[in-house]
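Our preliminary data section would be incomplete without showing what the modeling component actually yields. Below, a chain of 452 amino acids is followed by its predicted structure, encoded as tokens that our downstream tools consume directly.
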Amino acid sequence: MRTAAVIGTGLIGTSAALALTRRGISVHLEDADQDAARTAASLGAGTTELPDGPVDLAVIAVPPALVGKVLADCQRRGLARCYTDVASVKAGPRGEIAALGLDTVHYIGSHPMAGRERSGPLAATADLFEGRPWVLTPTADTDTETLNAALELVALCGAMPIVMDAADHDRAVALVSHAPQLLSSLVAARLEHADETAVRLSGQGVRDVTRIAASNPAMWIDILSANAGVVADVLDDLAADLADTVTALRALQAADEGERRTGAAGIEAVMRRGNTGQARIPGKHGAPPTRYETVTVVLGDQPGELGRLFGEVGALGVNIEDVTIEHSTGQQVGHVQLAVAPAMVRVLAAGLRERGWGVAGGAAGWGRGSRCAGLWGVGREEGQQVGRVQLAVAPAMVRVLAAGLRERGWGCGTGGSAARGFAGWGGGLVGLWGRGTGGGFRWAGRGWAGVH
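Predicted structure:
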């Protein structure tokens, strides 16, 4: 691939364009909002000038409801030799494309499984798709050249291709993405008019559950409108489980002992089903789920404390598999939970105590692949020996931290997540990648504060 066009310069389109230009591809940008296209171009995502002839691949990065219309316009103009879209729903656009009688030989649907709570070109980063799954939905009509062009796009963006049927894809994302988004919003909505005292008691659990509730409603209306029926089916099943759970909870208050036992059995059953489902989520680097154990360390809220802790862990030869931080209400300390291999728990706890660290209690089980939130969020990339780390810092320190990390060879981006090495910023969030080697994540920060 030498040339490409990106139609739609929001988060996904601009991120794809940035990834392609970084690999030397000549990218032409289009958007109904000329300001958005010019902003993307100013970021280095390409040019707003029209190509001299057909480009090798056109990437249609518009809401699902507009894919058919935009593809029709692009094919009428002869914009590209091959076409793909990156909408988050596939069956609806495919049906519309067929109904419009468009060329399906040189078109393939796709969906990169990546995103952020922020939207627009200014939220984009060339590394957004690094290590992430990218679903391709070819049909019997799709020719080899088009499939190969899409595969090359995925490779250039650093993602991993997964081939699926369009309807199967939509059912899958309804279950693992669309329904969870609504559930997160519903839980967060309970806090809207809650008593301030109750809200101040919020801990890591509610932060984990409500993190994605900060997403852009307008963007999600576009997504959910295109997959509404399938998402509604998932929520119907959840509603039935919720009704059974409410009944079980009422039974726990009954005067009759038999009813109370029935209620307890109902609650236990739904929680055990949850245990089983959570254990199926892929673990570190896509490997089967495995149990880690945690060592909890009390940490002061001063610059350099996390760096000192991670340095001590590295000196002990222990790899940090995952990490999360929970803040103490009213105190300038945090509890850092380090997930490590079970065989290393005693070594780590004893070694840290000898070095003067406050190590709390005993070890606790930790399911591999659990997504951390709080000051740190560590997401493992399937198929790659790296992890995506998001560092929440005071807004005034974001540029200082990002610049300092660049100077130390971590590489750079302009988004809110980063790799070993690239650091980016968005709000008060800076990201890193740490490789799964002895010593865990290398720390080059200047302290920690705040919650994302």
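The longest strand covers residues 291-300. Confidence is low (pLDDT under 50) at residues 362-387, 412-452. Preliminary results of this kind motivate Aim 1 of the renewal.
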